[in-house]
Protein: Nicotinate phosphoribosyltransferase
Amino acid sequence: MNNFTLAYTDLYQLSMAQVYFLKGKTQETAVFDYYFRRIPFKGGYAIFAGLNEFLELLENLSFSKEDIDYLKTQNFDDSFLDYLQNFKFKGSIRACREGEVIFSTAPILQVEANIIEAQLIETILLNTLNFQTLIATKASRIRLVAKEKTLLDFGLRRAQGPGGYYATKASVIGGFNGTSNVVAGKDFNISISGTMAHSYIQSYDSELEAFRDFATHRPTNCVLLVDTYDTLKSGIPNAITVAKEMEQKGQCLLAIRLDSGDLAYFAKESRKLLDDAGLDYVKIAASNQLDEYVIRSLQEQDAPIDIYGVGTNLVIGKPDGALDGVYKLAFSSGKPRIKISESLTKTTIPHRKQVYRNYDKNGFFAGSDVIAMIEEKEIEMMNHPYEPYKTLNIEKFKKEALLQVVMQNGEKLNDSPSLEQIASFSKERLLLLPFEYKRFDNPHIYKIGISDALKKERDLLIDSHKN
Ligand SMILES: Nc1ncnc2c1ncn2[C@@H]1O[C@H](COP(=O)(O)OP(=O)(O)OP(=O)(O)O)[C@@H](O)[C@H]1O
Ligand SMILES: O=P(O)(O)OC[C@H]1O[C@H](OP(=O)(O)OP(=O)(O)O)[C@H](O)[C@@H]1O
Ligand SMILES: O=C(O)c1cccnc1
Structure:
C-alpha cells in the first residue's frame, strides 16, 4: 500500500523549504517535537502507533519525476527542484517505542535533521502518527471493557477511504484479535475472519437453505447470521438444524451472529436454545454500532457474547475523529526556539529533550513523566508546565528514558518489530498503568512536568522575546 512520494505534503512545506534552500540553509540543523495537547475520548492515556510505517516510509521517501514535472508548473525555482530531485531524508529520530502508553504535552518523537528535510517530512509524519495513535487508543479502550472476549475489526466499509487499512493495523496494537479487512490481514499478518451479510440470506427463498449451502461450501469457521427474519423463532432454530447436520459430517459450527435488537437479551435467549440443543460449543458473535460504552454495558449485563465485531465507531475514532498531534520547532541554527502564545498551553517547549517516566516502588507507572533537557542527568523536581507554583518532588522515583534513537542518517537502526510484538509490548505497558488513569469517567490526570533547568530556559526565552 505504501506508494507515497514526498509530494504527499502541504504546499507550504515546499514554499518554506525553497526559501531555506535559496538562503543556503542546507546545512542548518533543526529539531522538531511531535506531541499532542489533548488526550482523545476524554480518556486518561493514549497508545502510540504508526512509528514503524513512518520510519519505513521515510527511508524510501523521494520525489518522482512526475512530481518534479508537476512542481515545475507551480513556480518553484529550478535549482530547488534539482535539489528535490535528489532528496533523501538523512536526519535522525528519537522516539518512544510503538505501542507505548503516552500522554499529552511530552514529546513522543523528536526529529533532528537539516531544516529543509525536517520541514518537508512534517505532513506525512503527522498524517501517519496522528491517525494510528487515535485508532490504537480507541481500540485499547474497547479492549479494556471487552476483557478476554474476541474483538474483530469490521470497519473497512465505513472508514475514511483508505484510512481503513491503517485503522485495522492500529486496532491490533490496541488489542483487537482480528479483522474482516483482507488486504490489511495479508500485509500485516493479522488473522482475518468473517461471517455473512443479510443480502446473502435475503437472496434465498429459505433461510435454512441459505445456512445449509454456506455450511456445505464454506464450513471452516462458519458463522451464521441469525437476525434477518426472526432471531429466536427462525434464525436460531435454523442454525441449530444446520449445526446438527454439520456434526453428522464431523464439522463444527463456529458461531451465530446477532446484528440487531437487544443484544444482551438475544444473546441470553440464543445461548439457552443452543445449549438445550447440545451446542454449547457454538459461540455467539454480536455487532451493530458497538463501541466501548455499549460493550461495557453488555458485559455488565452478563451477555453471553464471545465475539464482538466493531466497525464504524472504531475506525473513525468516534467521537473525536482526529488526534491533535502537532510538530513544533524546538531548536535551530544552534539556538533554542519557542512559539509564544496567549495561552501558555500553546507555548512550545524549546531545546533537545528527553522524557523520563517515573516508576513507583512496585514497578508501576507512578503517574508522572518529566520532560528534561537532553543532557540532564539527575532530575529531582518537576514543575507544572503551565502553572508556575505547582511542583512535584520526583527524587524517589526510578526513571526510564522514553525517547530512544530509532533512525540515524536516514536509516532505521533496528529491524521492524512485528505487529504482534508491538501489540504485546503495548499490553505489557498498559498493565503498568494504574486503573484510575484508565477509567472512562473523569480519569485521574497523569502529570507531565518540566525539569527546573528546562523551565528556566523556557522562561528566559519567553522573556527575551517579550523584551
Ligand atoms: N442490551 C443492550 N445494552 C446496551 N446497548 C445495546 C444493547 N443491545 C443493543 N445495544 C446497542 O444499542 C444500539 C441500538 O441501535 P438501533 O436502535 O439502531 O438498533 P436496532 O434497531 O436493533 O438495529 P437495526 O436498526 O440495525 O435493525 C446499538 O448501538 C446497539 O449496539
Ligand atoms: O455497526 P458497525 O460497528 O459499523 O459494524 C459493522 C456493521 O456492518 C455490517 O452492516 P451492513 O449493514 O453494512 O451490512 P450487512 O448487510 O452485512 O448487515 C454489519 O452487519 C455490522 O452491523
Ligand atoms: O464478516 C462480517 O460479519 C462483517 C464484515 C464486515 C462488516 N460487517 C460484518
